[in-house]
Amino acid sequence: MDYDRYDRIRAVQWQGDHLRLLDQRLLPQQERWIDCANAAQVTQAIKDLAVRGAPAIGIAAAWGVALAAKQGESLDAALSMLRAARPTAVNLMWALDRMMARIAAGADAAALEHEAKAIQDEDLLANRHMGQLGASLIAPHSGVLTHCNTGSLATAGYGTALGVIRAGVAAGRIEQVFAGETRPWQQGARLTMWELVRDGIPAKLIADSAASHLMKSGVIQWVIVGADRIAANGDTANKIGTYQLAIAARHHGVKFMVVAPSSTVDMATATGDDIEIELRDPAELLAVAGQRTVVEGADAWNPVFDVTPAELIDAIVTERGVIERPNAGVMQLMFLA
Amino acid sequence: MDYDRYDRIRAVQWQGDHLRLLDQRLLPQQERWIDCANAAQVTQAIKDLAVRGAPAIGIAAAWGVALAAKQGESLDAALSMLRAARPTAVNLMWALDRMMARIAAGADAAALEHEAKAIQDEDLLANRHMGQLGASLIAPHSGVLTHCNTGSLATAGYGTALGVIRAGVAAGRIEQVFAGETRPWQQGARLTMWELVRDGIPAKLIADSAASHLMKSGVIQWVIVGADRIAANGDTANKIGTYQLAIAARHHGVKFMVVAPSSTVDMATATGDDIEIELRDPAELLAVAGQRTVVEGADAWNPVFDVTPAELIDAIVTERGVIERPNAGVMQLMFLA
Predict the structure, then answer these.
(1) Among A40, A69, B58, B314, which residue's CB has the most CB atoms within a 10 Å radius?
(2) How far apart are the CA of B337 and the nearest CA of chain A, in angstroms?
(3) Which of B204, B285, B299 faces A207 most closely, judged by CB atoms?
């Protein structure tokens, strides 16, 4: 398998004494890097959405702890600061728990650096494995639609849902790729299209609201998305609009695949109803690219995630394997075994 | 009924010797008027989307014919030029057919001016009547979601779907109004929110992809939209995203209402499959507010309408009455009788 052909992007780069992050707020217009020398700077980058995507946030946070140790800062303070940076992404908590366990076991700065590197390296390997697993579900000559950005930018590299698309294209199974623009932040338009063009994968952007019309045309066989948190019954929190795509997919007989590392699965959350949905500033909908597009005095409702119930999901792919038709029983077999 | 309270906007204004059009491309940032002194200028305004909304396009085109007569221009040339300005909107054809019938009957310039005025006046009356009919279907304390712009800007005044919302708010039946932003042209964000704020109707903007999450929350009972063309079986072509809303509404038990003047009904088009869907320039998705937001080299698929099948529509409201659960049989009873 020639992984490198469609995988040239690394957005989180450890530099030995600091962390370099590709500032995702400025893509695709500018490729600017942010250097973080301590945990506070990493926290700020996560809060400001300079780094985004659940796995990438977890990896950056792990490096934040390693940096705190290197600088002789308080590790407790670093952990709680990083933990509070984003409420919904469970990978953040998972990565910090993993660093905390090493701290509790008496790890020094070098050992914490090693642990952060392991989290990052394992994520890349997991993504490549998930890519293979997910692509094997897709019939030759298929078209697929993805949402938001779940690619190299959102992970250590390769991506989750976009990793399956990379693998499916490399294997000759996927012939057409569509990406929803993903309002209000435009992650699909700005980031996914940037990755796909960068890595030479032909793709077309669509308005989020054009997905059903696309499905009706018969061009796509799978919707493939990532996840911010997967509950114990398979209900999946992901970028706003994911739920709408799942409803439309079921209506058209299009299959729906969720791709995420097992660290995204939160067996302590029983169902999607227990997942806190982040509401962000209405201003994100009232202006586009810094220009006010909506009349003064207007209000907006801006939830940034939604929950797709397990019964609308045909397959959940993690690095541990594929769960078809997820429910609490099969989830338990794979994630509590 | 105090119509005026929520109805202060007129975007198509006859000035005795020319037509004034509120340039909808510049709203809400600027309120600039375009003066059209001949049919070619009206055609250009329709082509450029300075005037938009199926009924408003028809009205403007009728005034274009009246202007041609006033200026002593060729009426045949004016008719065919105006007819070619937009392919999907059937009201355009309907209004021009009506003007053509008057020309065939030997009408002079004054009579054609009178006919254009009649088309405009009848549209306003039809909208107010539809507003009453549609609002009567809505239970007290309801929330509603609309898409695109179907208000005063899109018609002679008051609006179709937005007219039902105006009437429902005035009658105290509608308590919460949500508007989808309607990518890529942002008619909901730019125009509908402008109208609602202007007319003092409290409303919230949502991302198009947040509609299903909103429906799941139980806040809305109806989706209310306009139409660009209604086929003989009730299938309805409307702004891209309408079909997706209809699928989501049915999934959640939310009712779906289409509001349009009977001139939008095209009994010569058997079903939605026979409706030509306008594909517009991919550039509309690749830039926002004049700024390129997507990487160079990226492609996009940009259909601007879709078709909602009649079986997903709970009610079609025209000025002739309400059709519940539309199908070819009941459509024929109302529109071929």
Answers:
(1) B58
(2) 33
(3) B285
Domain residue spans of chain B = 3-126, 127-335
Which positions ≥6 away from B113 have C-beta within 8 Å? Answer: B14, B66, B69, B70
Q: Which of A228, A235, A306, A314 is catalytic?
A: A228
Total residues belonging to chain B: 337
DSSP for A220-267? Answer: -SEEEE--SEEETTS-EEEETTHHHHHHHHHHHT-EEEEE--GGGEET
Query: What residue of A is the nearest CA neighbor of B194?
Result: A295
Closest CA to B220 of B146, B296, B282: B146
Is A186's Cβ below 8 Å from some Cβ in B? yes
How far B295 CA sits from the closest chain A CA (Å)?
5
CATH class of the structural domain B127-335: alpha beta
pLDDT tens track of chain A, all 337 residues?
566 678 889 999 999 999 999 999 999 999 999 999 999 999 999 999 999 988 999 999 999 999 999 999 999 999 999 999 987 668 899 999 999 999 999 999 999 999 999 999 999 999 999 999 999 999 999 999 999 999 999 999 999 999 999 999 999 999 999 999 999 999 999 999 999 999 999 999 999 999 999 999 999 999 999 998 999 999 999 999 999 999 999 999 999 999 999 989 999 999 999 998 889 899 999 987 777 899 999 999 999 999 999 999 999 999 999 999 999 999 999 998 6
> d(Cα A250, Cα B59) in Å, to the nearest integer?
41
Whether B163 contacts B130, CB under 8 Å = yes
**CB-defined contacts A:B, below 8 A:** 187
CA–CA dist B237, B239 (Å, integer): 7
One of 3.20.20.60, 1.20.120.420, 3.40.190.10, 3.20.20.140 is the CATH number of A3-126, namely: 1.20.120.420
How far is Cα B125 from Cα A150, in angstroms, rounded to an integer? 51
In whole angstroms, what is the distance from residue B18 CA to residue B101 CA?
A: 22
pTM of the predicted protein model: 0.93
| Owner of token pair 């950056």 | A60
Q: Which residue of B has its CA nearest to A308?
A: B213
Q: Do A303 and B210 touch (CB under 8 A)?
A: yes
* Degrees, nearest 5: CA angle A163-A167-A173: 130
Alpha-helix residue ranges (DSSP H) falling in chain A: 39-47, 54-70, 75-83, 90-104, 109-135, 161-170, 193-198, 211-216, 242-252, 283-286, 328-335
ipTM: 0.93
A283 token code pair: 């201003």
Cα nearest neighbour of A307 on chain B: B213
A219 near B CB under 8 A: no
Provide, as residue numbers in chain A, all residues whose Cβ is less than 8 Å from the Cβ of B28: 293-295
